[in-house]
Structure formats: structure tokens, C-alpha cells
Amino acid sequence: MGTVSDIKLIDEKGLRIDGRSPEELRPIKIETDVLNRADGSALIEWGGNKIIAAVYGPREAYPKHNQDINKAVVKARYNMEAYSVDERKRPGPDRRSMEISKVISEALESAIMVEQFPRAQIDIFIEVMQADAGTRIAGLTAAAVAVASAGIPMRDLVTGCTAGKVDGHIVLDLCKEEDNFGQADLPIAVLPKSGKVVLMQMDGDMSVEEFDQATGMVMNAIKRINQIQRDALKNKFETSTGEVGE
Ligand code: ADP
Questions:
Q1: Is residue 10 part of a domain?
Q2: Atom of ligand 1 at shortest distance to CA of 87?
Q3: The domain spanning residue 111 has which CATH number?
Q4: Which residue of 50, 80, 161, 181 sits with most ligand 1 atoms within 8 Å of its CB, as the best mutation to test the pocket?
Q5: Which of 106, 150, 188, 241 is 20 to 30 Å apart from 199, CA to CA?
Q6: Spacing of C-alpha 72 from chain mean position
Q7: Among residues 60, 58, 103, 56, which one has the least CA distance to residue 78?
Q8: What's the rounded mean pLDDT across residues 34-38?
Q9: Strand, helix or coil for residue 14
């Protein structure tokens, strides 16, 4: 008792270490057009995460051997700033950021109508300024809004959320302590209109029943998160219409 491994993450009332109920999301806020030079951008604040996504393109892919004659190449780069975590993170790419960049690129490619832009490249930069667990999902959710805000044709947005297992309970949207001391972490992203899964990773162990419960929770949450993404885009377009009319 009392050691780090004994940290109690769920109390007698079933509430979590940050006071949330099992299916409660952390607060999420998304704002578009936060950078003037990018074709599209978005800032997401999701719990303690603060992440910017910036989109450039479609523009001619360079060097030329990177071009695909049938479609645009989608290149996302996920980067965690040295100051984004408690202990300074070693700057620059590492295996984790390369893996996350790859899965985010693939997820976004499923949503973007890449076949409309042969030989082009779409660059997406995801900068994690403050990290608090769930950054790949928060970064991807912001990146989808930034791509839409750049006016790039998409089949749908990409919306994600994480569920996990903590003290034997399945809970939604893990915070840092739950991510560190929990038993499993399951980030999922989908195209919300079709429900097609475009990212799914798992760290830890769950039974089949727990997995079903976790995916059910994520799918419910995705509807709410998708609405926040759409509201952010609606705000952008309503604001621009307002300016034109003035
Ligand atoms: P995700 O952020 O998508 O949940 P991980 O599960 O790999 O990805 O990381 C969980 C959390 O652990 C991160 O959000 C961050 O708060 C912290 N973290 C990840 N990498 C580092 C690092 N190199 N140094 C300090 N903290 C880190």
C-alpha cells in the first residue's frame, strides 16, 4: 500500500483521479485559422493537451521521385516540443514520433480525395506544445479540421478518441495518470459518416468483452467530438461570410 504501483485511479464512487465519470470526456476546444502563413490550421485544447496543426498544399511534390502519378502524397509530421512534458523531452524525431506520423498520415489519406491531385503533396505539421495523454488522437482530430479549413476536398472528417482500462474498469479518454498507471490504452479514429476505422492501436491487455465495451464508448464519444470539429469549421465559415457582408 502507498507505493506508486498501488495508486488508486478509481474511487469508491466509481469516479476517476480527475473526478470524471467513466464515460466523461475531458473538455475539448477547437479553433481554426490560428496561423496566417498556412493554407489551413487549427488549435486543439483537449484536457491538458495543447496542439497546433498546420496544413500546406496541395503543392507539387518535391523531390520529384516522391511524386505519385495517381494521387497526392499525404505527409504528416507529428512533433512533441521539448517543453511539452514535465521533464524536458529530447528534441527532434524519435521512433515514437515517426510511428505516430505514419499512422496519422495514413488515417488522413483515407479521408482526403487524394486522387484529385496527382503528383502533389499535402504537408501537415502537428506540433504538441503541451502533452497530457491522447496526443496522437488530439493531433489527428485537429489535423482533420485544419485540412478541411484549407479547403482540401475530403470524403469526411477524421475523428478520434481513446478508451482504456484503469483499475479493471473500462473508461473513456485517458488522462496522463491513467495512461501511465492503467492497464490498457486503445486509441481509435474513424471517418464518422461511414464509421470506417482509419486508426486503431492498442497498448496493454483487454478481454474481448472489455474491447467491445471500449469501442462502444469510443463510437459514442466520436459523435460528440465530431460535432465540436464541425462547429469550429462552421464558426470559421460564418465569420468569413460576416466579414464579406460588412
Ligand atoms: P499519446 O500521447 O497518443 O497517448 P503515448 O501513449 O505514447 O501517446 O504517450 C502518452 C503520454 O505520455 C503523452 O501524451 C505524453 O504526455 C507522455 N509522453 C510521451 N512521450 C514522452 C516523453 N518522451 N517524455 C515525457 N513524456 C512523454
A1: no
A2: 25
A3: 3.30.230.70
A4: 80
A5: 150
A6: 22
A7: 103
A8: 97
A9: coil
Q: Provide the residue count of the chain.
A: 246
Q: Which atom of ligand 1 is nearest to the CA of 86?
A: 25
Question: How confident is the model over 199-233, as pLDDT tens digits?
Answer: 999 999 999 999 999 999 999 999 999 999 999 99
Determine if ligand 1 sits within 6 Å of the CB of residue 140.
no
Domain, as residue range, for 136: 28-245
Going from the C-alpha of 181 to that of each of 144, 178, 184, 222, the distances in angstroms are 30, 5, 9, 25
49: its cell numbers: 493537451
Q: Is the CB of 97 under 6 A from ligand 1?
A: no
Rounded to the nearest angstrom, the distance between the alpha carbon of 179 and the centre of ligand 1 is: 9
Residue 214, strand partner residues: none
Nearest alpha-carbon partner for 8 in 173, 167, 205: 167
Total domains in the chain come to 1
